[in-house]
Specification:
The structure is a single chain. This protein is 79% helix and 0% strand. By secondary structure, it is an all-alpha fold. α1 crosses α2.
Length: 71
């Protein structure tokens, strides 16, 4: 299990890798500034998907990533 600090560091690195420095900063500002219900956002993001379907897709994505990395 990793520490809270390590999770934060990895999260910031992932945001910067995907969005770049400026957009990552903007994303963080949006999350902090606007009241944000993560559960509702997720529910609205994929309204036609079941929890089971999303879980299966997530597990498949991890498996594919591990295969590409030779894990």
């Amino acid at each position: 299990m990793i520490t809270d600090t390590e999770i934060k560091q990895k999260g910031i690195k992932a945001l910067i890798a995907e969005l770049g420095n400026v957009q990552a900063e903007r994303f963080i500002s949006l999350i902090i500034r606007v009241p944000f219900d993560y559960t509702k956002w997720q529910r609205d993001l994929w309204p036609e998907e079941s929890v089971e379907s999303l879980s299966k897709k997530a597990m498949e994505a991890v498996r594919e990533k591990n295969e590409k990395q030779g894990v």
